[in-house]
């Protein structure tokens, strides 16, 4: 008799298991079988934290509007003490996106454009009450987890040397368990199809809802190593760090992404946590969650304090 491999890590704290079960329940309740989301129900769980001008954990936050006609804005995080690093984070858009019909092709490019437009805005605009002279936008990093990792990749392609910025240079991409896929069923998708935190039934549903009508999972938004990989090969792609969890069914696609970058001569790093499931970093009680923070910090420092004159700073 063959032994079924485990689909979730051993020794997971009870609290984490409980929260994951609740999260799965919520996600499966707001997803409808016709490919739409029950937004009224979701808004009960999808609360927006307010920005704070008083330092919270030594960080001040404010929201900056980029384009009111489409409610595109981002949250700015500024360390209250001497500025060393500033994180620009693109917050999810609200408002107009809700009114778009589901499964519209425009959905996709809109979200990638939003991220790119925020970079162009930062490159060109003086932000009220924030001195850009203190921030080195020639060393900008893009970061995203899960679907955000997918977004960050596509924004990085747009923000490469295909576009001429003023000062802005994207030098690093932090892809935390990026959400990629394809028509093929990989070994990890089959083995972990009923995996903890993310199942194959869920990923199929997300792709079906997200991708334009009439396309399949080999669409370039999902299968980045497919037909349009040449777009990445041709550009000066930022140094990339990819985080992979051994209990995440998406891991085969993420490893292929890293290998694809390496094969194309790009600077790429792969960090694997064998006991981690999709979204593990949301749980500070897991040791891998602090390992990840340290790796990200080291990656940024390596790229920022490396000897000058090397190519990625050009
Ligand atoms: C999907 O189902 C919901 C709830 O039954 C319904 O309100 C909505 O109109 C449906 N949408 C589409 C596009 O079929």
From TrEMBL:
InterPro entries: AB_hydrolase_3 (IPR013094), AB_hydrolase_fold (IPR029058), Carboxylest/Gibb_receptor (IPR050466). SUPFAM superfamilies: alpha/beta-Hydrolases. Residues 110-281 form the Alpha/beta hydrolase fold-3 domain. GO terms for biological process: pollen tube growth. GO terms for molecular function: carboxylic ester hydrolase activity. It holds the Pfam family Abhydrolase_3. Belongs to the 'GDXG' lipolytic enzyme family. This is Putative carboxylesterase 18.
């Amino acid at each position: 008799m063959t032994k079924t491999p485990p689909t979730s890590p051993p020794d997971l704290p009870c609290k984490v298991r409980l929260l994951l079960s609740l999260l799965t329940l919520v996600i499966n309740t707001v997803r409808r079988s016709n490919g739409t989301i029950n937004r009224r129900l979701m808004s009960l769980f999808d609360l927006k934290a307010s920005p704070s001008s008083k330092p919270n954990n030594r960080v001040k936050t404010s929201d900056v509007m980029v384009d009111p006609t489409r409610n595109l804005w981002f949250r700015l995080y500024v360390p209250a003490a001497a500025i060393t690093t500033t994180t620009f984070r693109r917050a999810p858009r609200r408002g107009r996106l809700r009114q778009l019909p589901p499964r519209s092709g425009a959905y996709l490019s809109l979200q990638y454009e939003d991220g790119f437009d925020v970079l162009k805005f930062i490159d060109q605009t003086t932000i009220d009450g924030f001195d850009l002279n203190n921030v080195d936008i020639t060393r900008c990093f893009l970061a995203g987890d899960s679907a955000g990792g997918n977004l960050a990749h596509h924004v990085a392609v747009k923000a490469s040397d295909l576009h001429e910025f003023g000062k802005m240079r994207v030098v690093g991409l932090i892809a935390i368990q990026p959400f990629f896929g394809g028509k093929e069923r990989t070994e990890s998708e089959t083995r972990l199809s009923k995996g903890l935190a993310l199942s194959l039934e869920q990923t199929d549903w997300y792709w079906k809802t997200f991708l334009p009508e009439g396309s399949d999972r080999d669409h370039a938004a999902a299968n980045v190593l497919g037909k349009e990989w040449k777009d990445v090969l041709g550009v000066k792609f930022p140094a990339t760090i990819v985080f992979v969890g051994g209990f995440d069914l998406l891991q085969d696609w993420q490893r292929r992404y890293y290998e694809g970058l390496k094969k194309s001569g790009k600077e790429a790093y792969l960090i694997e946590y064998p006991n981690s499931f999709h979204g593990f970093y949301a749980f500070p009680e897991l040791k891998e969650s602090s390992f990840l923070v340290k790796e990200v910090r080291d990656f940024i420092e390596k790229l920022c304090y490396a000897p000058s004159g090397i190519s990625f700073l050009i």
